[in-house]
Amino acid sequence: AQSVTQPDIHITVSEGASLELRCNYSYGATPYLFWYVQSPGQGLQLLLKYFSGDTLVQGIKGFEAEFKRSQSSFNLRKPSVHWSDAAEYFCAVGANYQLIWGAGTKLIIKP
Amino acid sequence: GAGVSQSPRYKVAKRGQDVALRCDPISGHVSLFWYQQALGQGPEFLTYFQNEAQLDKSGLPSDRFFAERPEGSVSTLKIQRTQQEDSAVYLCASSSRGAGTEQYFGPGTRLTVT
Fold first, then answer.
1. How far apart are CA B46 and CA B58, in angstroms?
2. Which of A58, B1, B7, B60 is least surrounded, with the fewest CB atoms within 10 Å of its CB?
3. Are A94 and B107 a contacting pair at CB < 8 A?
């Protein structure tokens, strides 16, 4: 069965530090992979997506993610976080028309 | 351009009441999705429309939940005889095509059943 695992419930980083959020998936075919961000009281905003081709994808707000088929991973990275990045981040895999979601990682920024 | 809008943003219902949640997708988007998001969880799929056809309703938790999209644009999610376990944020999303395309989400409706 398709599934998405985000092993970290929350992560705390200092402002200006680098960030990596982990995502592992289980899917039988070549997946469509997404990262979304959800700020308090807001809807989900697409950060980036992977469909095919270059395994390193660039997104909005300075985020990038790397698809590693051998590790079934799609980790999200940012070289230097800003206080405004504090939010919940969700990884999702596209299974036909559905999105299968991870439980999310809450990012906390230390001043 | 306008994004996905949902109304109301907040709804408080007494147990046993019926509620109706509205979703206005992005104009021209053929696919529309409803999700339920419990506190501290990722969204859970409820149902999927392609134009006016409801192609998948396998995620609806019970027969108290009903969704429609009669003219292929606006959609309504109706919950009859609400129960406390229905308390959640209900998210609507639309996309321009079906499989593999990104979904654009509305702000959600937070339903609290007392």
1. 7
2. B1
3. no
Chain A with chain B: Cβ pairs closer than 8 A: 57
d(CA B21, CA B89): 11
* pLDDT at residue number B2: 81
Choose the closest CB to B100 out of A4, A42, A51.
A51
Q: Which of A96, A102, A104 is opposite residue B99, by nearest beta carbon?
A: A96
Q: Would the pLDDT of B32 be above 60?
A: yes
Q: Give CA torsion, residues B107, B110, B111, B113, to 10 deg.
A: 180
Residue count of chain B, please give it.
114
Q: Which of chain A's residues have a Cβ under 8 Å away from the Cβ of B41?
A: 103-104
Distance CA B42, CA A95 (A): 16
Output the CA–CA distances (angstroms, integers) from residue A100 to A1, A96, B46, in the order listed. Answer: 10, 10, 12
Our measurement of the distance from residue B98's CA atom to the centroid of its chain's CA atoms, rounded to an integer in Å, reads 17
User: Tens digits of per-residue pLDDT, A58-77?
Assistant: 999 999 999 999 999 999 99
Q: What angle is formed at CA B107 by the lines to CA B12 and CA B33, rounded to 5 degrees?
A: 95
